[in-house]
C-alpha cells in the first residue's frame, strides 16, 4: 500500500540476547545512513544488497549502541521493500532508544501487523496464508487497542481530552467566523490564540516529559499478588517495594482504585498491581470480589499467589487456584517458620506451578523468589507484550507531531498569516492527540461549531 | 389493483427530471445539452428556479460550489451574473481559500432568466404536472442477482412517460406542510401545491424516507421600514462575476443595499413568552431541522447569553417592495411575528407581506445512493438537491448537475463523474452525503473540506473544466484557454523564481513604503512575494522584465507563491489520500466472502457499498483493521483472478 517507511522492534522485548530493530520502506536506507556510522566510514546507500555492516548507532553526538546492520534491498526482502535490520544488544532500553532514533529521523512506528501486511500486499506471502495474515492483523490490532487504551493511565487520558477540547474550541471559533463572517469577527483574535496555544504547548511538553519516565504507559511485567486475607501479601509487597531496589511510582491525581508499584528487579521491570484495600485489610478476594480479582488476573503477565501454610486450604483458595490454572504463576508458601498445616503436596493436587517456601516475616526465601522470576523471564516463559513499548513510542510520536503543528500555528500568527491557516495546523494537532486516546475526528468540529457559536441566516 | 384513471402512453424520453428547482434545472440542462431528449416536470412553470428562502446565491463555501458548477458547465453562475443586484466577496481579509462570493439576486429575474434558458435549450421539454409514480422493471444481472431498472414515470393524471433514466429533484415538495404557529397548511413553499403521491411509490420501491424541516423568515414591505435606524451594507466597489465566462465589465452595475439591525431584550422576551405556541417547542414538528440555520426562537433559547442577534434586511428584487428579514426565520404564530418584528429598530411600524413559516418535507436517507447519485438498488434512478437531505440552492444545484451528468453518462455508456474530496467541494458534499450518517439538512461549510487550500474558488476552472470538457459541457474554446492558462501560470512562477533582487536603493525604498524590512543581501522575487505585507503586484516596479498577463493568471501566480509551503503540504496529504481512493471496490463486491471482518464493519459495508477503499475507511464503524483485512482480501482476489487467466 503505502511506500512510507515503517519501523518496529522485531524481536521479543526481553532483556536477553540480541534485539532487532527492523525498518522497511523507500527511505529505510537513507534513514539508517543518518544514524548509523559504519566502521569503515562508508555509506549504507553505496553497499550491495544482502550485506552486513558493523558500526555504531548514534543520535546526533550521542552514541547509542554498537550494532550490526543487515541491508536487504527490495524485492529480495520480507516485505519486498528496502529493508534494514539493526541487530543491537538486547535490552529493553537500547532497543527502545534505537527505535525512537529511527523514528526521529524519518520513519514512523509500524501499525500492528504492518510488516506482514506489506509482505502480503507486495506478493511476498503465499496466498494460502492470506487468512492467517488477516488473523494476525486482527489480533494484533485488538491487543494494541486494548493495551493502548487500558494501559493509558486515567490522568493522561483526561489531560489529553482536556487539551483536545481546548484546541477544538479554537478551531470551531475560527471556522464559524469563516463560515459566517458577518456575524462573528476575528478582530484581535490572533493575539488571544497565541496565548492559548502557548499554554497548550506547555501542557503537551509536560506530557512528553512524563512519557519518558514511564508515566504514560506502564511498561513492564504486570504482576498481581493474590491470596486470602492475612496470607502475607502486604509483607511481601512491602518487602519487594520497600528495599533499596524498589522504585515506587504512585501515580498521583488518579481516582482509580488500583495503584501500581513499579519495581526494578535487577533490570526486570515489574508492575505490581495493588488494589485499594490490599495493604490495609489484606482482604483482596473478599473485598474486591472474585469478579474483579479475575479481571486483574486476566490482564496479568505473572501472578504471585501467597498461601498461608499455617491454615488449611479453604473455598477461597480453591477458587483462586482454579483461576490460576492457565496463568503464569508462582506459589509462595508463606509462614514457613510456623508449623505447616498446608503442604506443597496439598497444593500440587490442585495446581501445578513453581512453589517457593518463604517467610515474609523472617524474609527468608526471597532470594529464591527473585531468582525464579528472573529465570522465568529470561527463559521467555514470562514475557510482557512488546506492543506496550511500541504504543508508547506511537503516543510519543503523536505528541511530538501535535507539538510541531502547534508551533506552526504560533509561527503563522507571528508571520501575520490569515486566520484560516491557523485552523489547518490546529486540526492536525487535534487529530494527532486523538490518535493517542483512540478517537478520530468524525463530526466533532461541526458539532462544536453549532453548539458553541450562533450563526446562520 | 384497480386503476381509477386509464393510463396512456404520452411520450418517450431519454431522461425525465422531476422538479424544476435549482437541482432540477441543472440536471435537465446538462442532459439536454449532451443531446439527450429530456423532459422536466414541475408543479408550476411559474416557479422554475424559484428562491423560496434567502434572496442570495453564494456565501462562504457556497460561492465555491457555484464556481465549481460553472467550471463543469452548469448554469447557476451565469444566471446569477445576469440577475444579481448586489455582490460581495466575503472574507477578503482572510486567506484565499476562504474568499467567497455572495450576490443578492433579483428573485423574479433569477427565476425568469433560468426559465428562458430552459425554454431555449434544444432537446428540453418543460411540462407542468405532478409525477406520482416511478415505474421500474426487474432485470437479471450478470452475476445472477436481480435489480430494478427505471423504465418511466407516471403523472397524477395517469400519463406515462417512458425513459431510460430519472432524476428526482423534488426539493421540499414531497408531502410538504407549512407551519406558522397553530396554523398548518398542507402546501409546498410559498403556498405552492405539494406533491403528495410520489413518496408512497418510492417507499413501495424500497426507498427509505426521512422527514426534515427548514424555515424561512417573513417578507416585509419596504415602505414600512425606517432605514435611518439601520446600518447600510453596500456591495463591493469592484464586482467579481461568478461565472468564468462572464466578462467582468458586464457586472459593474448600480447595486442595491442591504441593511443591518439587531434584535434586543424586548424581542427575546416576546419570543420566550410565546415559546409554547411555537410548533417546534410544542412538539408538533416531527422533521429534523438544520442547526446552522436556526430559527430566531432557537437562537434565543440556545444562546440565551447573547443579548442581541444581527438581522439583515435584504431586498428581494428590483420590481418588488418585499424585503427579506435575514436571521429571523420563525414558526411562531402570526400575531407573535408581528409583535416581535416590530421590536427591531427600523421595523417599529413594519407591515408583513408574507409570514415566516417552517416547512416539513419528505427526503431520502442519502446512504442509498452511490457517489454518482444513482440509487444502489434502482438502476437509472438518480437524485439531487434537498430530496437527498441537503439544504441550500447551491448545494442543490451542484447535486442536480452531477446527477444529470451521470444519468446522461449511464445512457451514453460513458464513465460516470465522481469528484473526490481532493478535487472539489462538490466531491466533499456528495461524499459526506452518501458516506456519513446524515441527521439534518446538510449544508456546505469550508471546514468540511480537508484540502481547502487547494479547493479555492479562484481555481475552480483549473480544477474542473477539463472534466467538464470531457463530459461535453465545456466548449473547445474554454478548454483551450484553461490549457493555455496553466502554461502561463507555470511559466510565470518559474520566471519569478529566477528574478534576482539586489539590495539597491529602489528596492529598499519600495520595501520601506510597504513597511517591509530592508534587504541585507540580494534575494529572489519569490522570497519577497512571500512576505505577508507584499505580493506579486506590489513588486511590479522592481520586476523589470515582467510580461503582460491577464488578472486571473496573476492571481494564481501570487497565491501559489505566497502560500507555497502550505499548498505543498496539502498536496502531499492528497497524494496519501488518493492511494486509498484509487483502490476501487466493485459495486457487487460480496462482503460475506471476506473472512474475519468484524460484524459491525461487515454490516456497514454491505449497507453503504462504498466504491473505493478510501470511501470505506470513512464509514463510521469501519476500523483501520477492517480496512487492512479488506485490502488483503482484495489483493488475494486480484492475484487469484490473474492466475486463472
From TrEMBL, chain A:
Q: What are the UniProt keywords, alphabetically? A: Cytoplasm, GTP-binding, Hydrolase, Magnesium, Metal-binding, Nucleotide-binding, Potassium, tRNA processing
- Where, subcellularly, is it found? Cytoplasm
The entry's (6S)-5-formyl-5,6,7,8-tetrahydrofolate-binding residues are 22, 85, 124, 457
> What is the uppermost EC class here?
hydrolase
Enzyme Commission (EC) number = 3.6.-.-
Matching CDD domains:
trmE, TrmE_N
**Swiss-Prot/TrEMBL cofactor(s):** K(+)
Q: Where is the TrmE-type G domain?
A: 220-378
What function is annotated for this protein? Exhibits a very high intrinsic GTPase hydrolysis rate. Involved in the addition of a carboxymethylaminomethyl (cmnm) group at the wobble position (U34) of certain tRNAs, forming tRNA-cmnm(5)s(2)U34.
This chain's protein is named tRNA modification GTPase MnmE
Q: Could you tell me which species this protein originates from? A: Roseburia inulinivorans
Taxonomic classification: Bacteria, Bacillati, Bacillota, Clostridia, Lachnospirales
- Gene symbol of the encoding locus: mnmE
UniProtKB/TrEMBL annotation, chain B:
Residues recorded as binding NAD(+), renumbered to this chain, are 289-303
Q: Which family, according to the similarity comment?
A: Belongs to the MnmG family.
Keyword check for Cell division? no
Its assembly, as annotated, is:
Homodimer. Heterotetramer of two MnmE and two MnmG subunits.
Q: Which InterPro entries match?
A: FAD/NAD-bd_sf (IPR036188), GIDA_C_N (IPR049312), MnmG (IPR004416), MnmG-rel (IPR002218), MnmG-rel_CS (IPR020595), MnmG_C (IPR026904), MnmG_C_subdom (IPR047001), MnmG_C_subdom_sf (IPR044920)
Q: What is its main location?
A: cytoplasm
Presence of the UniProt keyword Transcription in the record? no
Function of the molecule: NAD-binding protein involved in the addition of a carboxymethylaminomethyl (cmnm) group at the wobble position (U34) of certain tRNAs, forming tRNA-cmnm(5)s(2)U34.
Q: Could you say which residues bind FAD here?
A: 19-24
**By its UniProt entry, which PANTHER family does this protein fall under?**
GLUCOSE INHIBITED DIVISION PROTEIN A, PROTEIN MTO1 HOMOLOG, MITOCHONDRIAL
Protein name, UniProt field: tRNA uridine 5-carboxymethylaminomethyl modification enzyme MnmG
Please, one GO biological process term?
A: tRNA wobble uridine modification
Q: Which cofactor is recorded for it? A: FAD
Q: Which gene encodes it?
A: mnmG
Write the record's keywords in alphabetical order, separated by commas. Answer: Cytoplasm, FAD, Flavoprotein, NAD, tRNA processing
User: From which organism does this entry originate?
Assistant: Roseburia inulinivorans DSM 16841
One GO MF term: flavin adenine dinucleotide binding
Localisation: Cytoplasm
Q: Which residues form the tRNA uridine 5-carboxymethylaminomethyl modification enzyme C-terminal subdomain domain?
A: 561-632
HAMAP family (alphabetical): MnmG_GidA
Task: Give the CC-aspect GO terms.
Answer: cytosol
A Pfam entry, by short name: SAM_GIDA_C
Amino acid at each position: 500500500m503505502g511506500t512510507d517507511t515503517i519501523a518496529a522492534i522485531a524481536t521479543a522485548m526481553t532483556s536477553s540476547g540480541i534485539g532487532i530493530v527492523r525498518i522497511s520502506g523507500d527511505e529505510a536506507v537513507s534513514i539508517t545512513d543518518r544514524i548509523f556510522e559504519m566502521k569503515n566510514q562508508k555509506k549504507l546507500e553505496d553497499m550491495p544488497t544482502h550485506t552486513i555492516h558493523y558500526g555504531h548507532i548514534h543520535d546526533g553526538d550521542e552514541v547509542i549502541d554498537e550494532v550490526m546492520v543487515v541491508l536487504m534491498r527490495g524485492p529480495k526482502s520480507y516485505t519486498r521493500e528496502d529493508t534494514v535490520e539493526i541487530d543491537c544488544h538486547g535490552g529493553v532500553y537500547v532497543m527502545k532508544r534505537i527505535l525512537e532514533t529511527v523514528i526521529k529521523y524519518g520513519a514512523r512506528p509500524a501499525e500492528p501487523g504492518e510488516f506482514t501486511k506489506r509482505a502480503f500486499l507486495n506478493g511476498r506471502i503465499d496466498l494460502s496464508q492470506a487468512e492467517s495474515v488477516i488473523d494476525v492483523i486482527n489480533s494484533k490490532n485488538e491487543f494494541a487497542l486494548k493495551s493502548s487504551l487500558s494501559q493509558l493511565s486515567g490522568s493522561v487520558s483526561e489531560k489529553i481530552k482536556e487539551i483536545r477540547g481546548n484546541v477544538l474550541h479554537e478551531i470551531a471559533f475560527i471556522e464559524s467566523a469563516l463560515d459566517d463572517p458577518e456575524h462573528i469577527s476575528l478582530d484581535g483574535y490572533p493575539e488571544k490564540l497565541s496565548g492559548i496555544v502557548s499554554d497548550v504547548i506547555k501542557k503537551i511538553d509536560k506530557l512528553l516529559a512524563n512519557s519518558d519516565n514511564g508515566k504514560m504507559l506502564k511498561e513492564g511485567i504486570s504482576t498481581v499478588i493474590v491470596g486470602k486475607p492475612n496470607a502475607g501479601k502486604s509483607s511481601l509487597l512491602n518487602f519487594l517495594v520497600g528495599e533499596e531496589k524498589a522504585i515506587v511510582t504512585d501515580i498521583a491525581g488518579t481516582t482509580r482504585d488500583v495503584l501500581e508499584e513499579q519495581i526494578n528487579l535487577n533490570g526486570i521491570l515489574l508492575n505490581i498491581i495493588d488494589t485499594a484495600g490490599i495493604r490495609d485489610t489484606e482482604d483482596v478476594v473478599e473485598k474486591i470480589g472474585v469478579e474483579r480479582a479475575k479481571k486483574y488476573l486476566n490482564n496479568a503477565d505473572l501472578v504471585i499467589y501467597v498461601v498461608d501454610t499455617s491454615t488449611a486450604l479453604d473455598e477461597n483458595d480453591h477458587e483462586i487456584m482454579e483461576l490460576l490454572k492457565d496463568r503464569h504463576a508462582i506459589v509462595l508458601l508463606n509462614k514457613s517458620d510456623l508449623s505447616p498445616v498446608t503442604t506443597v503436596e496439598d497444593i500440587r493436587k490442585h495446581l501445578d506451578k513453581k512453589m517457593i517456601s518463604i517467610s515474609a516475616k523472617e524474609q527468608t526465601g526471597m532470594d529464591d523468589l527473585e531468582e525464579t522470576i528472573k529465570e522465568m523471564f529470561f527463559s521467555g516463559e514470562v514475557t510482557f507484550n512488546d506492543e506496550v513499548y511500541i504504543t508508547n513510542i506511537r503516543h510519543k510520536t503523536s505528541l511530538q507531531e501535535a507539538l510541531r503543528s502547534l508551533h506552526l500555528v504560533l509561527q503563522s500568527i507571528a508571520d501575520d498569516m490569515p486566520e484560516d491557516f491557523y485552523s489547518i495546523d490546529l486540526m492536525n494537532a487535534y487529530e494527532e492527540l486523538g490518535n493517542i486516546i483512540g478517537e478520530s475526528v468524525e463530526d466533532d468540529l461541526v458539532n462544536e461549531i453549532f453548539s458553541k457559536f450562533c450563526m446562520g441566516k | 389493483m384497480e386503476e381509477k384513471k386509464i393510463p396512456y402512453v404520452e411520450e418517450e424520453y431519454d431522461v425525465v427530471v422531476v422538479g424544476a428547482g435549482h437541482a432540477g434545472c441543472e440536471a435537465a440542462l446538462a442532459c439536454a445539452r449532451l443531446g439527450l431528449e429530456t423532459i422536466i416536470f414541475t408543479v408550476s412553470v411559474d416557479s422554475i428556479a424559484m428562491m423560496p428562502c434567502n434572496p442570495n446565491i453564494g456565501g462562504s463555501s457556497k460561492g465555491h460550489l457555484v464556481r465549481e458548477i460553472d467550471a463543469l458547465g452548469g448554469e447557476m453562475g451565469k444566471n446569477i451574473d445576469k440577475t444579481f443586484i448586489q455582490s460581495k466577496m466575503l472574507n477578503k481579509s482572510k486567506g484565499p481559500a476562504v474568499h467567497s462570493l455572495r450576490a443578492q439576486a433579483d428573485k423574479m429575474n433569477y427565476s425568469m432568466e433560468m426559465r428562458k434558458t430552459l425554454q431555449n435549450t434544444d432537446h428540453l421539454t418543460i411540462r407542468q404536472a405532478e409525477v406520482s409514480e416511478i415505474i421500474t422493471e426487474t432485470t437479471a444481472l450478470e452475476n445472477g442477482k436481480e435489480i430494478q431498472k427505471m423504465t418511466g414515470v407516471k403523472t397524477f393524471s395517469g400519463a406515462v412517460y417512458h425513459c431510460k433514466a430519472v432524476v428526482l429533484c423534488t426539493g421540499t415538495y414531497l408531502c410538504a406542510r407549512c407551519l406558522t404557529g397553530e396554523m398548518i397548511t398542507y402546501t409546498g413553499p410559498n403556498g405552492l401545491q405539494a406533491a403528495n403521491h410520489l413518496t408512497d411509490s418510492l417507499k413501495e420501491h424500497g426507498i427509505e424516507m426521512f422527514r426534515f424541516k427548514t424555515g424561512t423568515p417573513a417578507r416585509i414591505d419596504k415602505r414600512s421600514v425606517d432605514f435611518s435606524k439601520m446600518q447600510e451594507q453596500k456591495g463591493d466597489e469592484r464586482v467579481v462575476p461568478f461565472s468564468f465566462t462572464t466578462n467582468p465589465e458586464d457586472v459593474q452595475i448600480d447595486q442595491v443595499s442591504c441593511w443591518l439591525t439587531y434584535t434586543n431584550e424586548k424581542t427575546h422576551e416576546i419570543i420566550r413568552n410565546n415559546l409554547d405556541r411555537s410548533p417546534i417547542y410544542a412538539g408538533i414538528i416531527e422533521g429534523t431541522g438544520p442547526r446552522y440555520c436556526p430559527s430566531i426562537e432557537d437562537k434565543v433559547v440556545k444562546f440565551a447569553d447573547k443579548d442581541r442577534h444581527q438581522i439583515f434586511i435584504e431586498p428581494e428584487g428590483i420590481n418588488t417592495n418585499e424585503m427579506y428579514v435575514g436571521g429571523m426565520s420563525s414558526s411562531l404564530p402570526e400575531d407573535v411575528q408581528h409583535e416581535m418584528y416590530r421590536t427591531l429598530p427600523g421595523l417599529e411600524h413594519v407591515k408583513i407581506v408574507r409570514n415566516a413559516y417552517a416547512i416539513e418535507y419528505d427526503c431520502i436517507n442519502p446512504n442509498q445512493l452511490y457517489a454518482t447519485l444513482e440509487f444502489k438498488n434502482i438502476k437509472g434512478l438518480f437524485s439531487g438537491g434537498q430530496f437527498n437531505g441537503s439544504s441550500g440552492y447551491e448545494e442543490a444545484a451542484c447535486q442536480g448537475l452531477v446527477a444529470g451528468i451521470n444519468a446522461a453518462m449511464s445512457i451514453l455508456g460513458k464513465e460516470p463523474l465522481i469528484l473526490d474530496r481532493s478535487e472539489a467541494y462538490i466531491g466533499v458534499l456528495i461524499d459526506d452525503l452518501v458516506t456519513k450518517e446524515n441527521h439534518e439538512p446538510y449544508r456546505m461549510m469550508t471546514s468540511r473540506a480537508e484540502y481547502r487550500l487547494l479547493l479555492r474558488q479562484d481555481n475552480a476552472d483549473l480544477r474542473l473544466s477539463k472534466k467538464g470538457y470531457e463530459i461535453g459541457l465545456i466548449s473547445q474554446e474554454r478548454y483551450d484557454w484553461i490549457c493555455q492558462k496553466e502554461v502561463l501560470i507555470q511559466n510565470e512562477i518559474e520566471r519569478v523564481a529566477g528574478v534576482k533582487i539586489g539590495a539597491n536603493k529602489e528596492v529598499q525604498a519600495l520595501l520601506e513604503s510597504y513597511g517591509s524590512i530592508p534587504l541585507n543581501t540580494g534575494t529572489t522575487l519569490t522570497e519577497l512575494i512571500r512576505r505577508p505585507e507584499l505580493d506579486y503586484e506590489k513588486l511590479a516596479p522592481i520586476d523589470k522584465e515582467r510580461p503582460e498577463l491577464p488578472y486571473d493568471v496573476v492571481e494564481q501566480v501570487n497565491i501559489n507563491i505566497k502560500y507555497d509551503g502550505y499548498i505543498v503540504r496539502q498536496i502531499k496529504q492528497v497524494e496519501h489520500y488518493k492511494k486509498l481512493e484509487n483502490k476501487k471496490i466493485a459495486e457487487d463486491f460480496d462482503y460475506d466472502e471476506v473472512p474475519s471482518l468484524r460484524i459491525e464493519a461487515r454490516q456497514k459495508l454491505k449497507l453503504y457499498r462504498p466504491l473505493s477503499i478510501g470511501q470505506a475507511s470513512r464509514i463510521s464503524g469501519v476500523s483501520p483493521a477492517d480496512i487492512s483485512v479488506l485490502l488483503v482480501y482484495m489483493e488475494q482476489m486480484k492475484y487469484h483472478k490473474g492466475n486463472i487467466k
